[in-house]
């Protein structure tokens, strides 16, 4: 059959405008049909580990196969193993928005397939990135020093992990230029115990002592926000012990419960102690384009760097993590290289930005294109509506939970995440952790909904995030009904 | 007009199967038309720094705009600022192949838009990646320990920079577990002076002493390959000085001249000294699926890690960098995190791979999909033909250069790169560096062709790489004609 196809004249060229047109139209219909039927798939894939190895051959084919053959395999073999992040019944982790505009942007970027490490390798890629990050900085009312016209500027990273890593490296090298390289083992990093694990990983990568990544305790008394007093005390202790505090990662919207650290009060502490102040608003930053939520980043004018992921809740396909820095030279001093084979007039003349020096990899995709298309095809007003709509649905879900006395909302809902748990029956041996773990498994194994969990003060807690573009109130209602039914069944079985 | 459009009922939804279908078909035609007319654009963008800021507004729009409006802007404002990596007249840097199959894979991956950090977030993403990396390992005749069934396995990184970084970190932490963390400032990294700048950057990132990243001298006597004796001597000196050698990055196909380091002889040195042996075949690795070129990676069976970029010369759209490691536990020990919110049964039970622990970021795209589609839609035979065809065209170009006595080929052509220069006239004050710099500028400013340069033994050298999928012999001929014409004009003007 392979040989037959090869001889049929249908063989696909490496590149050809008309073949591309024909095959890509087929793919568009396949994708549109996927979205049309997306609710028929289990949201969380129900396959067992190793399922795919049993379905695919153990070698690459020698001869070409047809697109139809491959698409059949996608339908029959790949899609069952997909967890459908774009399903309207997806309420897990944080959202990863795909949108029509974002998808179109990805298409165009993949088609041009440029590698924009330096300005000259596609001036439009660099310049559009600078422009849309300035647009966003304006929409978020960020301080002037984060604009490209100041000493700083914005850049698209792949993920928030890379964003925190590059600013940690910039901060590390900046302080080491003052105190000397040999002080590396004395550098201390701070965050709350709610800070994303990427901070620890960044410390690990940067050669910092992992013991000196201080994740300061939070609890429900501050709604899991970092206390400036706790930070201040930790810093004083470290200084007294001859250590060198150099970096704080503050959160606006933590992963577990969307807690918001008090930026202005924390900024006072970092200013006094000459510490790099990074604000991680990976998820919640998107909400701050709405006037009524902008106050959550009040204090950002004191930050050295600020991050939000357009690929989470801003209708921009993964990956697209936006980072602004106050002082771009710190980033560039840490991350620049200048080999002969990349030298060119524009770069040598310091006339342009070369974003390769603002990130870990050398190569980079034309990611600004999709963000630009999202901004233009939806407009800021459309994006605000998208955000507000999700927050309203989360508020509605919260109400539903509150009305059922068997459940409890365990942290304030600030954006579109509700943290809640099923209460253990009186005199139960279980503190509720096993109960909620079991409830999560039961609910997710229906395939009708996907939610995830976290731990807050040692309690196993369920997380329900509204954020998928296709989610409507009816999906929220249906999800709650499943949760209630499974809770009833579980409590009865005890 | 914005308001009008808003009221016209054409407003794009965040997501909707039928709107997606309609708009994506429009985008397909736009993209196919781009490829149809790609030769009408200057290959190297001829815009001046800052050009785009003058064409775009300084704020994001409040209200949605139409796709047609945006596509007009792409045509009129963005495309002039694009350097057309997919043009058949692109002979610069190394290629970054887009192909029909790769593009279709990107479309599908963008449509599913999953974030595959852990197995459970889309089992198919993890398992397909493992499978296709095993397929490729087989096609490249890699040793058993690089297969997922051994102690190692393959993983897709964004770029070769990230590949060398993660293995450097794994090697760093492995040796530090033996000698103690305080030995960090004593660790020494080795490579030749032809090694890609990403090695130095990785050292910088990992907190290693930049002075101890030894880029050992090469010259034309070894065709710019690293001498095992030079390496051995450097290691002995460092050990004698109380330093700790721990990492070698060897090259198969350097960026400047596609030099090939002698892997078997280097492996002897690393084995004796217990040094992590990384092989960077970012560009040339693709050629090694052809039996006649496989010998260039002989010795890879001794390597601890091996890297090739499918996004360079393997018809797989950017980004897709393939990394194999001998001992996956070393990678995982350096890069794993395990926060509560990501815990799940499959991961806790060690039943699955979580690729988040094999890379820098947490999030990751479904990149194996495009590689799988490339392998299936072209077959290994089709991919071999693609490679051989380019190498034959480069050999033809080399012949053309040799036939014109005004030029000189300055390094052996091994794959599809020809390094050459225009010889300065006798009694010229210029050693040829200015002459070739001027020739490069003249040629690139025609817009008809794009080539880049490098330096070899202090000489400014022109690089001509055949690698774009659309390139045919007529494009190579035309490029050479432009080079000859401009050389004639330049020599006459002296």
From TrEMBL, chains A, B:
Family, per entry: Belongs to the group II decarboxylase family.
GO molecular function terms attached to this record: L-tryptophan decarboxylase activity; phenylacetaldehyde synthase activity; pyridoxal phosphate binding
The protein, known as: Tyrosine decarboxylase 1, variant 3
Record has Lyase as a keyword: yes
KW Lyase (keyword) present: yes
PROSITE patterns in the record: DDC_GAD_HDC_YDC
Naturally occurring in which organism (per UniProt): Pisum sativum (Garden pea)
Positions carrying N6-(pyridoxal phosphate)lysine: 312
């Amino acid at each position: 059959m392979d040989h037959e196809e090869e001889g049929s004249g249908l063989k696909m060229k490496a590149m050809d405008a008309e073949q591309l047109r024909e095959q890509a139209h087929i793919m568009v219909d396949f994708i549109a049909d996927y979205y049309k039927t997306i609710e028929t798939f289990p949201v969380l894939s129900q396959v067992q580990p190793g399922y795919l190895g049993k379905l695919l051959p153990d070698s690459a084919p020698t001869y070409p196969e047809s697109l139809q053959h491959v698409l059949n395999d996608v339908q029959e073999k790949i899609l069952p193993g997909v967890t459908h992040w774009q399903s309207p019944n997806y309420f897990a982790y944080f959202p990863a928005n795909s949108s029509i505009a974002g998808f179109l942007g990805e298409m165009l970027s993949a088609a041009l397939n440029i590698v924009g490490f330096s300005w000259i390798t596609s001036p439009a890629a660099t310049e559009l990135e600078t422009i849309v990050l300035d647009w966003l900085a304006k929409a978020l009312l960020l301080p002037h020093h984060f604009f490209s016209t100041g000493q700083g500027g914005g850049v698209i990273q792949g993920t928030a992990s890379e964003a925190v890593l590059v600013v940690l490296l910039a901060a590390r090298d900046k302080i080491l230029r003052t105190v000397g390289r040999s002080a590396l083992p004395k550098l201390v990093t701070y965050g709350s115990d709610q800070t994303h694990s990427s901070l620890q990983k960044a410390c690990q990568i940067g050669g910092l002592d992992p013991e000196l990544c201080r994740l300061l305790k939070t609890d429900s008394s501050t709604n899991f926000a970092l206390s400036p007093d706790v930070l201040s005390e930790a810093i004083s202790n470290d200084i007294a012990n001859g250590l060198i505090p150099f970096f704080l990662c503050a959160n606006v919207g933590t992963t577990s419960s969307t807690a918001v650290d008090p930026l202005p009060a924390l900024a006072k502490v970092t200013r006094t102690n000459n510490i790099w102040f990074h604000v991680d608003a990976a998820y919640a930053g998107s909400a701050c384009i709405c006037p009524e939520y902008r106050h959550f980043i009040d204090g950002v004018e004191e930050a050295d760097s600020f991050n939000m992921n357009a690929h989470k809740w801003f209708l921009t396909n993964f990956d697209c993590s936006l980072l602004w820095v106050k002082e771009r030279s710190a980033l560039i001093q840490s991350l620049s290289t200048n080999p002969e084979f990349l030298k060119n007039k524009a770069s040598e003349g310091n006339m342009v930005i070369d974003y390769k020096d603002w990130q870990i990899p050398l190569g980079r995709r034309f990611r600004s294109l999709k963000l630009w298309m999202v901004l233009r095809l939806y407009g800021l007003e459309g994006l605000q509506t998208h955000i507000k709509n999700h927050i309203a649905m989360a508020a509605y879900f919260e109400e539903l939970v509150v009305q059922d006395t068997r459940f409890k909302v365990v942290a304030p809902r600030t954006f579109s995440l509700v943290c809640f748990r099923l209460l253990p029956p009186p005199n139960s041996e279980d503190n509720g952790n096993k109960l909620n773990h079991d409830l999560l498994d039961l609910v997710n194994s229906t395939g009708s909904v996907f939610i995830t969990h976290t731990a807050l003060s040692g309690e196993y807690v369920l997380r329900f995030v509204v954020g998928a573009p296709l989610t409507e109130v009816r999906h929220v209602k249906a999800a709650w009904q499943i949760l209630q039914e499974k809770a009833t069944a579980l409590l009865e079985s005890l």
